[in-house]
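Deliverable D5.2: sample structural annotation.
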Amino acid sequence: MATRRLGNLCADKTVFFLCDMQERFRNAIKYFPEITEVASRLVQASKLLNIPLIVTEQYPKGLGNTVTELDISHAAGTFPKTKFSMVLPEVETQLQSLCSNDVQHIVLFGIETHVCVQQTVIDLLNKNYEVHIVADACSSRSQTDRVFALERFRHMGATVTTSEAVLLQLIGDKDHPQFKAIQSLIMKSAPDTGLVKL
């Protein structure tokens, strides 16, 4: 009998995937400032919690690099790509190098929800990773595309969640040594913009 996946997260078995948050998308993607702010909190949390961060950039020669609001200097790797999925041979090699911690959970955020994020979800699920998509840190040019992609992810067996839920689940206890730092990140969150209407 197959084990039922309940959406659990263990920090020492988790990797964060930041998908294609690049300069040329700034004016094309709905709610880009809001998802950038949320992505920044997740990127900062990855450093605080010592969770590896993997970053991709779609055709950076034409679309630019990751936006400067996101400090990815601690990333385990930043990988240029033309393929829509983040699951590149180089990324798989990087994941294997992290397997001393038995990586099971991928927390995924970025753009576009229905293209690069979706292809990444499919590839990761096919490789038996448990995938958590951060809804308030993902968007598309069209909110119709975004909403239907999120719905598809749930049907596929991924967990669609929020940044606050992910961060609190990763620390799990008020007595966690990074609780106050994570709480501070959460308290910086902007008022609800309606982005997460599903």
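Annotation notes: Strands lie at 14-19, 53-58, 77-81, 105-111, 130-139, 159-161. The chain has a mean pLDDT of 92.
The annotation will be released with the project's public dataset once the embargo ends.
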